[in-house]
Amino acid sequence: KPIISAVNGAAAGLGLVLALYSDFRLASRSAVFTTAFAKRGLVAEHGVAWILPRIVGAAHATDLLMTSRRVEADEALRMGLVHQLSDATDFRASAHAFAMRLGRDVSPRSLRVMKRQLWEAPFQALAEAVRLANDEMVKSLGSDDFREGVAHFVERRAPAFTGQ
Description:
Layout: E1 4-7, E2 10-12, H1 14-20, E3 24-28, E4 32-34, H2 48-56, H3 58-67, E5 71-72, H4 73-79, E6 84-86, H5 91-105, H6 108-120, H7 126-141, H8 144-154
Parallel strand pairs: 1-3, 2-4, 3-6
Antiparallel strand pairs: 4-5
Helix pairs in contact: 2-3, 6-7
């Protein structure tokens, strides 16, 4: 299942770590982010030195970890730390709408397979990743969700995916 973090305030230290392990990070325009570790005499805990560069790139990760500076929401969006921003007044509704669209419009089976692919790919050679993706594509073409994906497109109706 996709994990969505909705940040409407500060995400600092461990709070930021939890958001980083999410599949989607949504934030209000008033949100702020900081690693805080270096300012507390700590190190990059809980694998943050592994995941942060994969999200924002090595240069931004180095900056965020070594300076522990506060990053405002607009900058977080520009560096790829968050996926979308909403005004604080409608933030809860916007985050809820995002989750509902995800649950309604896309195949749970596809999400499940793609999430696994995204987590495993950094540890695979390209040839292995392509081979496994091709195997999964064959399985997808035989799935109920594929049939439903084609049917709802052709019939111009909302999908009714089962995850199968």
